[in-house]
């Protein structure tokens, strides 16, 4: 029986479409967040595997003295820090409550709050009421917060307009630029942190989901770790077009700063999102999402990072572009530090809207193991963990 020509054409088109779809599914980049096909030799998101505590000796609250007022406690030289505005008090309280419930009520590390204006009495009263540990309230020195005199404010305004037209969030908000610069190169210089070594950064509106029953600061110290993260993410290339070229200039002038065991392949990956690498001029834009950080301030106070930050600061990109502390910290760690000194805290369940780090563990509740994002499905492609796991590892 003869088949009409339009039907034949339609059938051929359907077969071609089917072949195309099968091909696309087979070759699709396997983002962890989509739960798609295997990547880098792994068959699934590691967060879906049962997650326990890190191996080796851990300091526990029932074996050592972690009483809040003890003068001879087992606490090491560390504090929980938070840059926060008075207006964010109601959003900070649940973050504090989560971290106290899951971890700090056992260890009683001090909280140190920072602000560019004085904290209100209400802020002090309500935050101290959330913890048995000591709270401290600190003003950021003007010289750490103000726009440096080298910055041309007319040029800032013009650049901010252009970035805003490109849809870059917060581009024209000067306080956002100041905040990013402070978190990049100032926080560890604050006099209140002078005698501290390790910090855990906390922001308003974040959540913690898992009981952590060991002293994470002692963990960092015992294993000689520099930095710990939970989420690994892509950045908006429009915010950092000249960050990588500027970094390359710095590196060319200081070749000895490059660690023998660096993370260059992760920093320069062009497979997962080639367009990001292209638009950021050679940088993958992958970074440790720095609203969560557990780190050793000695790294930031050291010669390499200090010289790097000063170089970036003079280049002006904290204002003429919108360089964030996350890519700046991440690039520095990726270049100057040994990759084995960076730790993925896979066991710390964490959320900063819209992304999660949610392990599969009986110690966790109120998050879905392996779920990476909440909201529109396009967020899945912001996950940089496949590249990190491939080039650096899952440690
Ligand atoms: N004191 C003070 N804190 C600030 C200022 N700007 C930002 N922060 C704090 O810096 C941290 C990061 O700021 P956010 O506005 O959350 O920036 P973000 O995480 O990139 O943006 P979101 O995705 O909107 O949360 C938060 O802890 C804020 O409370 C400021 O001008 N003054
Ligand atoms: Mg935030």
UniProtKB/TrEMBL annotation:
Pfam family, one: Glyco_transf_15
One MF term in the entry's GO annotations: alpha-1,2-mannosyltransferase activity
Top-level lineage group: Eukaryota
Signal peptide: 1-24
GO cellular component terms, A-Z: Golgi apparatus; membrane
UniProt keywords, alphabetically: Glycosyltransferase, Signal, Transferase
GO biological process terms, semicolon-separated: cell wall mannoprotein biosynthetic process; protein N-linked glycosylation; protein O-linked glycosylation
Family matches, as InterPro entries: Glyco_trans_15 (IPR002685), Nucleotide-diphossugar_trans (IPR029044)
Family: Belongs to the glycosyltransferase 15 family.
Name of the protein in its database record: Glycolipid 2-alpha-mannosyltransferase
Source species of the chain: Aspergillus mulundensis
